[in-house]
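Notebook entry, cofactor series.
This is the third protein in the set we're modelling with a bound small molecule. For this one the ligand is nicotinamide-adenine-dinucleotide. I'm keeping the input format identical across the series so the outputs can be compared line by line later. Sequence and SMILES below, as received.
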Amino acid sequence: MELWWVVLVLGVIFLALLARSLVYHYLIPMLRVPAIDVDASDVILKKSESPEDNYIYIPKKVKNSERVQCYEPATMKYLGFFPILKPEEVREHVKQAREAQKTWADSTFKQRRLLLRIMLKYILDHQELICQVSARDSGKTMVDAALGEILTTCEKINWLLKEGERWLKPEYRSAGTVLLHKSNRVEYHPLGVIGAIVPWNYPFHNIFNPMLAAIFSGNAIVIKVSEHATWSGCFYLRIIHSALIAAGASPDLVHIVTGFAETGEALVGSVDKVIFVGSTGVGRKVMEAASRTLTPVVLELGGKDAFIVCDDADVTEVVPIAVRGALQSSGQNCAGAERFYVQEPVYEKFVREVSSIVKSVRMGLPLERQSDMGAICMSEHVEKLQSLVDEALEDGAECAVCGIHSMGKNGEELVGQFFPPTVLINVNHSMRIMQEEVFGPIISIMKFQTDQEAVDLANDCNFGLGCAVFSKDKRRANAIASKIYCGMATINDFATTYMSQALPFGGVKHSGFDRFAGIEGLRGCCLVKAVTEDRWPFIRTVIPKLLQYPVADNAFEFQGALIRMFYGLDVWTKINGLTDVLKALSAANKKTPVQK
Ligand SMILES: NC(=O)c1ccc[n+]([C@@H]2O[C@H](COP(=O)([O-])OP(=O)(O)OC[C@H]3O[C@@H](n4cnc5c(N)ncnc54)[C@H](O)[C@@H]3O)[C@@H](O)[C@H]2O)c1
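Returned structure with ligand:
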């Protein structure tokens, strides 16, 4: 047969297998997925509403309030009031979740996948609604929401559908030297009820992210949403509940609790594990509270990622990534690019090109398609951003781009909490702006000379979440990244480790510890149990007579010989050990007293 014939036949077989796999694994399951109906009548923006109809809400100091007050940071429009749950109410939610989890623990992976597909289908069909709700509550633009809420969540669901079961199945491990007759495995059982305390910056993804991992691994979850994203969180819970019911599961598997610090603290003491995502200061308090009940805790805290551009990098290609990394969601990202270190030969070009893009950024209302950047979620944060910039300028920094507070793209005054995208140069590490988490649309750029200097600057920071290194020489970029003390590194890209949902997410130093995404995060929701059993039916552990009680006089010598036999570094030591084992056994046999 001619070679091309063989290639053709193999090609057809390959395509047929691929088509079969696609039909069985994707098409049929997707077709069978029921659609859910979620009441969104009260969150949809009415077409007839004009800005003049909007009730302009000026938030008071909400901490002393009786209720959680929600408003749109971009328009200050009132969104709703939600209860501040008391500790006993939080415990009641946990109790209900615990009850529902008892049945869910025995659910099959098929049922769990069905649940995920129902959610995925809803998300795909309602992207605009989900983004609108997030944009109104947090101030981010629709595109920022599509990237940070939808894309990341779909990727997580997809990864769990494809690989989730594989990583939760028992994993077999080697038996070691002495216990060759044993079969060893690690089992991953659900922990029970996971408690997640989450921030406001991605109202949809911050709920779905821990919820998906917890539920897929057989747990229930109680989520304390941020007081700044309660309105959206309570709507997203409706999606989850409808999906749970459609998948034949109890809606009690997922609860949302609303309130402030006291509500969050009550959750810490009543669940089996806490996933805390938030600021370093609050993370400390959560760890303190968790220590009282010895509740395990994952801390995913703030960041101040270094973005390093070497002299051989293609600056024109890097700049759009740099600006997106800094301005996505108005810079309110834990893994946001905050410290830019650019090598001297390309520094001027980098500053020029970054400034040119930043000047073109249109700050405006989140729901308007022409807005590139939205609002700042927390009112007091706008003041903090301004003070960081003012202080840096006083200390010698220069403004390459500085906008005016709350000024829209056409020069109109914006009512809401806006901060203009800013580029600062001549900054240094004595300035607060290069040390504290900024969490805003500020690009601070510093020059460096050598690779070692870039590493030293990147490491001269209390945070250690992620970093990015750009160089045409991959080996050089990897060498720099490997010396930076942080949890995640991207080479010639920014923060894309998060888009690979198989990878763990988390940091070191003041960025926290442990991991909440990827295989590590999924298994982190589990009780990790080591199990060992006999490998073959007729071979089992027998305690040699001379080690049985009362032990023989030469029991210690026997034990020593046994250890030499197993672990001797050369063959003679092993043979010597074996000989001594046999001698000890025969001596013990001779001495065995006759039992009466
Ligand atoms: N590393 C990550 O994965 C990640 C992701 C997103 C945001 N963040 C960080 O989150 C911060 C911004 O979010 P934020 O302002 O909502 O953070 P925050 O720490 O103020 O609040 C986070 C959550 O903790 C709750 N809380 C407050 N006090 C508490 C207490 N004493 N006990 C228990 N819970 C309490 C809040 O109500 C909220 O739900 C930034 O520092 C950002 O870097 C980290």
